[in-house]
Amino acid sequence: MGMFGRSQRSVFKPSVYQPGKRQRRMPRWLVLLLVGIGLGAGGVLFLQTNYGPQRLTVEQSEQLHTELSASNVERQRLQAQLDEAITQRDNNKSTHETLTTDLGKAKSRIEELNQELVLFQDAMPPDPRGGDIGVRAASFRKQPGGLAYQILVMRENVTDNTFKGKVELDIDGTYSNGRRDRVKSDPMPLNLSRYDHAQGVMPLPDNYNARTVTIRVLDAQDKQVAIRIYNVRG
Predict the structure, then answer these.
(1) Which parts of the chain register pLDDT below 70?
(2) Which of 47, 62, 134, 148 reaches 20 to 30 Å from 226, CA-CA?
(3) What is the pLDDT of residue 1?
(4) 149, 168, 159: which is closest to 225 by C-alpha?
(5) How many Å apart are CA 34 and CA 18, to the nearest integer?
(6) Can you tell me the distance from the alpha carbon of 113 to that of 107, in angstroms, rounded to the nearest whole number?
(7) What distance lies between CA 136 and its chain's CA centroid?
């Protein structure tokens, strides 16, 4: 049979120069997004490098840490000094209050003693020889190697002028062989407003036995203004 009476469909055959499947394109919005991210990261890096704070090296970081530690130690030291100063201030305040209280008590006691002293002065018997200045009381006791004494000289009339003179002692006694002798003391300075009190130990010669003591009060010109004789006890 002839071939002209049948219609035939042409069959498509792919070319060896074309791919078998069509490649899919990346969406445009994704491309723009990736480009924007890249530009943003680059801009941040550029700004940080040129205009932002520089990154510290390891050495700079260690140095900064060392300086920070030193500053912290200094701060702690200053804080400790401040705490010590505050504590000392509080202690000084407490001590000041205590001293103020003790001072007030001492002043009150001194005032009481002054009043008692006035009564004591008024109660002392006057010098029997009279006069403005006199020996009101005295005592003398023997002790090994010397003579212990206490002497009270008083002034009858209180004035603003201080009497300046001296006190001398004349000790009469005997030695162990029976020989009599007088021993004189060194002058003792006397500054007399209302009263003056002297005490001490006067050395004596060996084997000397004191019997009596004559007290002489002399003024600045060695003029005698008072005299009194006492027996030695002991």
Answers:
(1) 1-56, 58, 61, 117-123
(2) 148
(3) 43
(4) 168
(5) 31
(6) 10
(7) 47
| Ordered domains of the chain (ranges, CATH) | 133-231 (2.60.40.10)
- The strand pair at 146-155 and 133-143 is best described as antiparallel
The one-letter code for the residue type at 158 is: V
Check if the beta carbon of residue 230 is closer than 8 Å to that of residue 139.
Answer: yes
Q: What backbone phi and psi angles, to 5 degrees, belong to 46?
A: -65, -45
Report the candidate in 165, 171, 169 with the shortest Cα–Cα distance to residue 218.
Answer: 165
| Dist. CA 28–CA 70, nearest whole Å | 58
Name the one residue in this structure whose structure tokens are 């021993």. 183
Pull the structure tokens for residue 112. Answer: 């009481």
CA-to-CA distance for 99 and 92, rounded, in angstroms? 10
- Cα distances from 172 to residues 20, 180, 187, 200, in angstroms, run 159, 8, 17, 18
pTM score of the predicted model: 0.52
Burial 107-136 (b: 16+ CB within 10 A, else e): eeeeeeeeeeeeeeeeeeeebeeeeebbbb
What pLDDT does 201 receive?
93
Nearest to 197 by CA among 124, 115, 95: 124
Residue 90 confidence (pLDDT): 84
Could you say which DSSP state residue 39 is in? H
State the distance between the two ends of the chain, measured CA to CA, in whole angstroms: 189
**How far apart are alpha carbons 158 and 102 in whole angstroms?**
32
The confidence score (pLDDT) of residue 164 equals: 93
